[in-house]
Write a structure and sequence with these properties.
Helix 2 packs across helix 6 (159-179), helix 3 (45-52) packs parallel to helix 4 (70-87) and helix 4 runs parallel beside helix 5. The model has no long low-confidence stretch (mean pLDDT 92). Helix 4 links the parallel strand 3 (59-62) and strand 4 (93-96). The chain is globular, with a radius of gyration of 15 Å. It contains 6 helices and 5 strands; from the N terminus they run βααβαβαβαβα. With 181 residues, the chain is α/β, with parallel strands linked by helices. Strands 2-1-3-4-5 form a 5-stranded parallel β-sheet, with helices on both faces. Helices cover 44% and strands 10% of the residues.
Length: 181
Amino acid sequence: VYYGSSITQGGCASRPGNAYQNIISARSNIDHINLGFSGNAKGEPVLAEYLADLPMSIFVCDYDYNAPTVEHLEDTHHRFYEIIREKNPDVPYIMITRPNYYTSLRNSEDVANRRDVVMRSYLKAREKGDKNVYFIDGASFMTSPHQYDTVVDGIHPSDAGFMRMADGIGTVIRHIFEKNM
């Protein structure tokens, strides 16, 4: 189950099959549920409660972009994790930061602060003993060479950007499945 922003939704992919979840699913022969909401995934507790009841083998949390402020992200991110975790104590949980750090240089302090919020949420989960939580720094997706070819508007990935996201996230998902076999 994937939850997140318009990037998670697959916005700006040239076709549905080029969204990163679809690429991962095709490569791994696994199904997925894509709950990406353009502008509306903001870590709401009521949505976390709904998501926690869905059948899932992995949960991917990627709503950084839609949190209106760093403070909002700080107030919601770890609580969202806790709500999912309460009903799914053993499901691998992946936390991802926004993927286009290098194309957001005009807001680099905001991007770094948001990354730190997600990292603190991850570290807090690990400190409480959760060994089945994972952190992926989205800044690792859109790196050189040709980093500007990976987004269409400085935010939303192009097909090339979605491929890079699928490579990075898919590696973690394959590791999780191999570890749990």
